[in-house]
From TrEMBL:
InterPro entries: Asp/Glu-ADT_sf_sub_c, GatC. It comes from the Archaea. Gene3D superfamilies: Glu-tRNAGln amidotransferase C subunit, N-terminal domain. This is Aspartyl/glutamyl-tRNA(Asn/Gln) amidotransferase subunit C. It comes from Candidatus Methanomassiliicoccus intestinalis.
């Protein structure tokens, strides 16, 4: 795809950039090279399903199983409780 200086001039006008004739020519050549570099993406193989990870990610963690590590009665004895409720500092 060819980028002519006139297209670069329109883009520069929208971006409110003043370019000289030499800059217009140079930028049109640069943009053409950039588009050629991106044309390699057209050769990439197509895929029916799109995924964020190219490698399949599996969950290797175990399922959580609820359990009691410490007896609640022991915790109540160790903490400052009032009517089986933990008492914390006052909030102003």
């Amino acid at each position: 795809m060819a980028i002519d200086p006139k297209t670069v001039e329109r883009v520069a006008k929208v971006a409110r950039i003043n370019l000289t004739e030499e800059e217009l020519k140079r930028y049109s050549e640069d943009l053409e090279e950039i588009l050629e570099a991106f044309s390699i993406l057209d050769e990439a193989p197509e895929c029916d399903s799109f995924d964020f990870n190219p490698v399949n990610v599996e969950n290797i963690l175990r399922d959580d199983e609820p359990r009691l590590d410490i007896d609640p009665a022991i915790l109540r004895d160790l903490m400052h409780t009032v009517d089986d409720r933990v008492r914390g500092p006052r909030v102003i």
